[in-house]
Fold UDP-glucuronate 4-epimerase.
Amino acid sequence: MMMRVLEDELFPSTPGKVKIERTHAANRQLHRCFASTSTLFLWALLLIALTASYLSFQSFVDTSSRYFTASWGGLHWERQIRASAAVRREDGIAVLVTGAAGFVGTHVSLALRRRGDGVVGLDNFNAYYDPSLKKARKALLASHGVFVVEGDVNDARLLAKLFDTVPFTHVMHLAAQAGVRYAIENPASYVHSNVAGLVTLLEACKSADPQPSVVWASSSSVYGLNDKVPFSELDGTDRPASLYAATKKAGEEITHCYNHIYGLSITGLRFFTVYGPWGRPDMAYFSFTRNILQGKPITVFRGRDGTDLARDFTYIDDVVKGCVAALDTAEASTGSGGRKRSPAQYRIYNLGNTSPVTVPALVGILERHLKMKAKKNVAEMPGNGDVPFTHANISLARAELGYKPTTNLETGLKKFVKWYLSYYGYSRRVGNKS
Ligand SMILES: O=C(O)[C@H]1O[C@H](OP(=O)(O)OP(=O)(O)OC[C@H]2O[C@@H](n3ccc(=O)[nH]c3=O)[C@H](O)[C@@H]2O)[C@H](O)[C@@H](O)[C@H]1O
């Protein structure tokens, strides 16, 4: 029987049968084909479903990991931001302070908070210098009710979120890549923070509703190779001596552009070698103190012609008063929805001390306060961006901000040394670690 079937299939006896058998075979082929096509189709469906669920899982992981691992976002975070931004005095202001865990940022944030203004900090806690000092400043701010968001001014989404959460009246923009000589080692970091970061911040400010007034840190270094003293805001600033100076000068041009197009109220403050407690470890007065205490040598640079270098060292409390006065006198921005309604205020001020001191004199003061002698090496100023001297004319800041520095280098360094010894755990007998 089996043989018969096989024969019939292989050698059909009638043409009709052949036709029928052929039809059956074709059907079977077709059926197989359909069967395999539908299997394929099912597989394809399964694959698509798997891919889709994988992708949505990925996006779920991305989104949720942002909430679980990112340092910003979420309801609790928003509550902290709003609490920190809450204004506690009549006519108080709500200020976003960038670089809040930095030296000047910490002091300005504290001053604003103490008088009842709302303050939210932003800082990326980068490792340009010991981040543990920045964390300690953050803790100090937290103990005064100032919340510092960990994030970068280049993060446009974060900035948009901050402005969505709080209608800041002012931005105090102090986040920057500081330091004159480090630009030789890491030029890109200056462009990243001082140019790209500034533009990202200004973009956020111009789009914010209401637009905040912006006060930001420029630098005495924009005077560059100028030799007319004291440096006045009316002097030319087109001969920067370092990339740091060039990015600060670029900042002055960039802010002008946002003022002109979008009606942002802008105040640029040219800081002159600011020093004091909670200062920056990369600066000379700070690193000299550390080395003197540790019995290590310091290098004192000297001009090519043998002259001593000099700086218009400015004490932090004086600079803070200048910053706060700049915020208080800043007019409102005039734009909205990314468009200017009328011309907006654009100002630039020197915040210096008006009495330059040479670097060897600075060392002498430190030696007296530390009651220790420095092991000094003298070397010619390397050609890496330093300028021989700085000296501020502060008439404009005095007239328009009521800025009046009151702390000389002797007094200011005394306060700095006191803080340094206490912060780094030296006992009262200077030089001994407790
Ligand atoms: O006003 C500014 O806009 C800038 O001020 C500050 O720059 P500077 O005035 O260069 O301060 P700082 O490094 O303390 O050097 C002081 C002096 O010590 C000399 N110096 C320095 C180091 C050293 O080892 N030896 C030395 O002699 C050195 O040659 C100089 O003569 C800020 O850092 C900068 O971010 C910016 O804000």
Notes: The pocket of UGB is lined by residues 178-180, 219-221, 271-273, 283-284, 299-301, 309, 311, 359, 381, 386 (CB under 6 Å). The radius of gyration is 33 Å.
